[in-house]
């Protein structure tokens, strides 16, 4: 902004000019009035694009300046055209200097302030265009006092408010008035209706009220009138018939009422009549056929009734006919077939009946909307019976809410210009034709509420313009085609209430424009895609799919595949308890192991509720009165040697240290809300001891497989003796023949799996965190192996994170509780440990050693460094993590494998050797894998290379 740079002499003049033009001229008679005025004008406004750079006060004349036009003889400025110059600020008084100005056009700028009669010499002005600025406030009454020459005025698209000045009605020469898109209120000044010179009157988009006066005379030169989107009321007066030159009438979106005056039939030049959304009523008169020039006739959303007059057929120029949302009855007049220029036809939302005329498709129509017509006679959509060529122009086909049955034929593919296809609410059967993929420009597809069956064709991927896809409430089966994730324009998808199956394609998460995605009430399964839209999808959009998991359905996903065991805490009932447990013995022989597990799980719940309830009663009573008659016995103290009495039905609770002191109820223990997670050996719940200390309780779901009480206790006690900073401590256990609980130290930080894969945005693990987790985990495994304990189940959901970020490995050694190291049972845990399972499990002849833990550890290392699951299910591919990293290493781009969240901030000199170590740990041959002790040494060396350089 440099309005005054280099114009010091003008500084003084500026003040003077504003005060007295006469004085200014006398001070400097040589200075051209127009130059002076324009420079002052320029000084008042901002010109960020330098559009007025050519305006210089050193010039003698303004005639060569941008936007300025002078009279050829007088050389006075007569026009100022500064449209779209990006000017802002207030118009000062400078333009008052331009005494010869006839046209002032400042449209499409960002000028502000209110209008005063001082902006220019209005008495000379013929054209004043201030449209599309930010002017505001009332227009003062004086503004039009001297508007004798004014022919055209536009104040459109500003922020003017208040009443339209009465004085406007006394500008005798006005031909064009445009006050649209402001907030003018009140009624139109009476004088305006009698201005005889007006050709164009645009008052649309204001808050105007009142009506067109009954005795309207004048306006007999009117070509176009637009009163749309105001609050006008009353009837259209007969006088409208005098506007013989009228070409365009838009009264839409007001509250006009009554019928159309008969005088309107004289409007022979009128080509556009829009009465959309008023409260007009009565029948559409026969004379409408006289208004021969009509190209658009929109009577939609009124209260017209009766039959559509057949004289409509006389309107040969008709292109758009919209009678939607009225009370029309009867059938479509056959005469309509004479309207050969029709492009859009809408009779939807009426009470019409009859057949769908075939001519509709034959006339080159671009848009057909006949929804909610009760077209009872017709069965099939008469596509094939019409000339293929004619269909090419059809853009909108809305046959919703009719009674079409039959199939959608592949002829639909011929409608190559179709943007909208709405066949919802019919009785269409059969499949969605593959030819749907030929509709390349289709953006709206609604086939809902039919009886369509079969699958969603993958050809849908060719409808690349689709924004709305609705096929809800049909009988569709099969999967959601993965190809749908190519439809990047999709915004609204509704596949609800079908019988779709299979998982959700992961790449759906990449659809950038999704606003809604309703898949409720199908049989979809597996995990919801993770990603921007799906993380916040509303539960109602996914409900009614029993096998879906993810946070939106409030159901955590198991490690990989859904398990056959479904624990239902609500299924407990006292009467059935005995039955299940007594029958169990007989069935055991007959049933497969997996069904045994399922039955045992159910029994565990039932018995568990009772056991824990009793257990709590006992704890409470013992603390007060020390009653000896309770069913449960406890073992307290520092030693494991206590062996309290137990009677036949009761369980035994052993705490390795301190008083056993549960304060929680059975409800809390078995409450799903307290469930921390679920693994191969059972579910884990959080509960609180009476001293306020939380513990985690694991309920073994393999209960029917565990050893005798003696062996069970021996093994658990052995595990209980294992103490290491990086191992979750076992604090005690509870035993009955049908229910075994293991009581663990509670680790608050959640599992590593959650930290890596459920990342609650931003709170991700740094490289340092990750390295410490790897090292701590290695140390814990080395410790276990030293004590001759094989973990068997190393995976990220079994590594918990302690309060200071240290890893704590849990679930170790539980396989020892099983009667034998049954490969079947162990590998059935593959469901939860997929990807971590060493290859020797599959091979009966290879002995299983602690090297299976090394393998699982290697996978864990790669998982921690890459942030990827051991096995990722892609759309049509399964990516095995270690193969991927190995391949990347061979191709020399292993750094790309590091978690994207660490890219650019991880030390390659640590990350790469760590990944190599992970790969070595995952060697196929167990003896090629290092010991955990060696692994710990190598890791420590990677961290402190100074102590020894070892190339991996
Ligand atoms: C108009 O001016 C206002 C402030 O005067 C500014 O905030 C706005 O961005 C401008 N608009 C345009 C389109 O330049
Ligand atoms: C009135 O002005 C608005 C905004 O500039 C414009 O869109 C509209 O077409 C004008 N009306 C007429 C009848 O020219
Ligand atoms: C007819 O008017 C209705 C509004 O009343 C509108 O929704 C519809 O799109 C119009 N139909 C056509 C074909 O223009
Ligand atoms: C299809 O027609 C029905 C009934 O007229 C309507 O409710 C629905 O919104 C239409 N679908 C689309 C996508 O416009
Ligand atoms: C679809 O329904 C029709 C009967 O309307 C039946 O003949 C056909 O076999 C069904 N197709 C599929 C894929 O279910």
Key structural traits:
single chain, 952 residues, alpha/beta, Leucine-rich repeat, LRR (right-handed beta-alpha superhelix), Phosphorylase Kinase, domain 1, Transferase(Phosphotransferase), domain 1, 20-stranded mixed beta sheet, 7-stranded mixed beta sheet, 18 helices, 49 strands, 21% helix, 18% strand, elongated, disordered N terminus, binds 2-acetamido-2-deoxy-beta-D-glucopyranose
Question: What would your notes on this structure say?
Answer:
- Residues 670-942 form the Protein kinase domain.
- With 952 residues, the chain is α/β, with parallel strands linked by helices.
- Among the domains are: 24-99, Ribonuclease Inhibitor (Leucine-rich repeat, LRR (right-handed beta-alpha superhelix)), CATH 3.80.10.10; 624-746, Phosphorylase Kinase, domain 1 (2-Layer Sandwich), CATH 3.30.200.20; 749-952, Transferase(Phosphotransferase), domain 1 (Orthogonal Bundle), CATH 1.10.510.
- Helix content is 21%, strand content 18%.
- The chain contains 18 helices and 49 strands.
- The strands form nine sheets. The chain has a 20-stranded mixed β-sheet, with no helix packed on it. It has a seven-stranded mixed β-sheet with strand order 39-40-44-45-43-42-41. It has a five-stranded parallel β-sheet with strand order 16-18-20-22-24, with no helix packed on it.
- Helix 1 runs antiparallel to helix 2 (21-27), helix 16 packs across helix 17 and helix 17 (908-921) runs antiparallel to helix 18.
- The two termini are 66 Å apart.
- 41% of the residues are buried.
- Residues 1-30, 373-380, 384-390, 559-649, 663-670 and 947-952 have low confidence and may be disordered.
- The structure holds 2-acetamido-2-deoxy-beta-D-glucopyranose (NAG) (5 copies).
- One 2-acetamido-2-deoxy-beta-D-glucopyranose (NAG) binds at residues 371, 400-401, 422, 424-425, 444, 446, 468, 470.
- The site of one 2-acetamido-2-deoxy-beta-D-glucopyranose has 10 residues, from strand 25 and strand 26.
